[in-house]
Amino acid sequence: MILRKLLLGDEAIALGAIDAGISGVYAYPGTPSTEITEYIQANAPEVRSRWCSNEKTAMEAALGMSYAGKRALVCMKHVGMNVAADAFVNSAITGVNGGLVVLAADDPSMHSSQNEQDSRFYGNFAMIPILEPSNQQEAYDMMAYAFELSEEKKLPVLMRIVTRLAHSRAGVTISKRKAENPLSPDNERTHWVLLPGNARKQYACLVQKQDSLLESSEHSPYNNSVTTSEKAKLGVIACGIAYNYVMENNPQSLNIPVLKVSQYPLPEAAIRKLASSCDALLVAEDGQPLVENQVKAILGADYPTKGRLSGVLPRMGELTPDSVGEALGVKIDKPFVDAQNVMPRPPALCQGCGHRDVYNALNAVAREYGNARIFGDIGCYTLGALPPFRAIDSCVDMGASITMAKGAADAGVHPAIAVIGDSTFTHSGMTGLLDAVNDKANITVVVSDNLTTAMTGGQDSAGTNKFEAICLALGVEPEHVHVVVPLPKNMDEITRIIRQEIEYQGVSVIIPRRECIQTLGRKLRQKKSQQ
Amino acid sequence: MKKDIILAGVGGQGILTIATIIGDAATTAGLNLKQAEVHGMSQRGGDVQSNLRLSSETIYSDLIKQGEADLIISMEPMEALRYLSFLNKDGWVVTSSNPFKNIPNYPEEQQLNAELASLPHVMSLPIEDVAKENTMPKSANVILLGMAAKHIGILTPEQLRESVARVFAAKGEAIVETNLRAFDIGLNTANK
What is the CA radius of gyration of chain A? Predict the structure, then answer.
């Protein structure tokens, strides 16, 4: 019997990985990748799947599982690749034993992100195969293919998706589940001990594999062509999800041949062949113009190659069927113009959220000092930047609140206050706090603890119940570690403590602790339905 | 045959439940379906939408092209207008008329209603008020689905009604009954 399920792209990847026989998934939550790990946690409890502290620890644990001979998946959002990069790039040098797939979910248009970096650059940089599914069925099917490719080439494989695939549902036909690999730790120490002498050999081996990776792309079942009989004015190279936007515009009717690319390195022979049958090529790729540049290098500057760089497609933001249609010469017919009475509706902190009380207290105290600076971080509480709070002066990357406050304090800023969430603190804040303690930086750190990773939907937070102990162990003096309950009735106490710790010349940590009202509400509803 | 639907609202209003019900009906009927959702930061009280595409043919894009949506179903009047450029010339707007004001510069309601009313094919109802009057405050979204049912076309109201029962089945008989009643209120309003 054929089994068909309606799945999000993320869920299709998760089920694909389960059915490919993974023994573990390692991840830190991050939109739009979170639902992959959640699906595995809910549907395959025998697979190791506890949330990791950050993407680097996740990447390393997955590499360890691969070392032991089993298949592992590691998932993250695109900016998580920056955190995992050290382990990721070196995993291409060690190579793998059990199959290892790194899933990076990019967020073009920055729906929930600080940038729209394109993870394919990382795969290119690490010189490993990249897969880019165009739809949910491919996302599912490609997982088994990715693990086989990884074990065949003895390399990690990067699978890159974008928000629109991650968070879109479609029917997916399901195959049989494969058994997990037996335990068989690798015995080749020279592969894994990256002393320079070994690393040079391993790198030479990686360089040598490049021809076979290209060969694999040229014959990939996921790279294929829709050809036309006669010579065409324009041909299209459609990468990953961009293939859908091209096909939505019915290129056959326009006599436009299409080469779909879902496996990299780029299939050069196929591109040359397409170019020879067309007067010009359009590169449709979601994210940054990686392929457009590579195609120019393959075909030479004289061949007309169009795309985001040439300006026929927007330079930034996600592609849409409209923008791709326009590049193909399809006119948009809009019977209705944009409405007049529409205003932007930005997201906001929930009513009753503890972060609100934290910002009310911080703003009250900050007003007393003319020059207070509040360094924010990544999470729901970043919304404290918006009205009515307008409380934070910066938000850059995971953990940067503490370290930027330290640098600013070193330069003379006072008060220098950092606001960081509990999960972000254990992700990347602890090491910065140690720097601050060791240098006796004059900063006040607020670890706003809502007992969960809230922004991504309420996943377990790695440090829950451990924050005072962590701060003390890192050397924050006990009399400068405070726990408060962020409620309006406690405002006097909270503002008094903030004031007192700003006046202290050194590192203080204030931990406002109250459960996220979203997770609390969910627990209460579950309890009620069980009664 | 195809139907391209934009579901609109504010994070937390329950548009994904409407999408789930239509999705269940489409899957049961053997139709192809693509449903792009919004997850993440916008779910905290920001504007959210879902592109729902149903077809007997292959569906490529997860996103609907501008000017090609057959139907906008919105839990909120201003949010209904946000996606107007996506509507095709015969397209319908089915919306709640209860505004959700969580921004300081919410448009003047009279003008907003006038702009909505100027559309050729529009149906609006204060669904939250109706839901409260009928002691089903949490089923406003299902009332809206009932109102939109006959415009979905590619699925019959009866198929959608069966999916309402299936989607809520896990929550118990009482909740199924309430939501079926909500669906019928919407359906009957639209038929008046």
Answer: 25
A171 touches chain B (CB under 8 A): yes
pLDDT in tens, A435-449: 999 999 999 999 999
Six-digit token string for A343: 């205003």
Q: Is B20 near chain A, with CB under 8 Å?
A: no
- Cα separation, B163 vs B148, whole angstroms: 15
CB of B89 within 8 Å of a chain A CB? The answer is yes
| pTM (predicted TM-score) | 0.96
DSSP A369: S
pLDDT of residue A1: 67
With beta carbons under 8 A apart, name residues in chain B contacting A32: 39-40
Torsion of CA A386, A445, A357, A460, to 10 degrees: 90
Domain boundaries, chain A: 3-208, 224-328, 354-519
User: In Å, what is the CA distance from A15 to each residue of A151, A166, B141?
Assistant: 19, 13, 30
Residue A2 sits at the chain B interface (C-beta within 8 Å): no
Q: How many domains does chain B have?
A: 1
Fold of A3-208: Rossmann fold (3.40.50)
The CATH class, in words, for A354-519 is: alpha beta
Distance from CA of B118 to the nearest CA of A (A): 11
Class of domain A224-328: alpha beta
Q: What is the pLDDT of residues A78-111, one digit of tens each?
A: 999 999 999 999 999 999 999 999 999 999 999 9
Size of interface A-B (CB pairs under 8 A): 149
B27 with A6: Cβ contact below 8 A: yes
Is B35 a residue whose pLDDT tops 70? yes
Nearest CA in chain B to A381: B41
Task: Compute chain B's Rg from CA coordinates.
Answer: 16
CB-based contact, B11 to chain A, within 8 Å: yes
Residue A429 CA: distances (Å) to CA of A60, A320, A355: 19, 37, 18
Judge whether A333 is closer than 8 Å to chain B, CB to CB: yes
The strand pair at B32-36 and B47-55 is best described as: antiparallel
C-beta atoms of B105 and A529 within 8 A: no
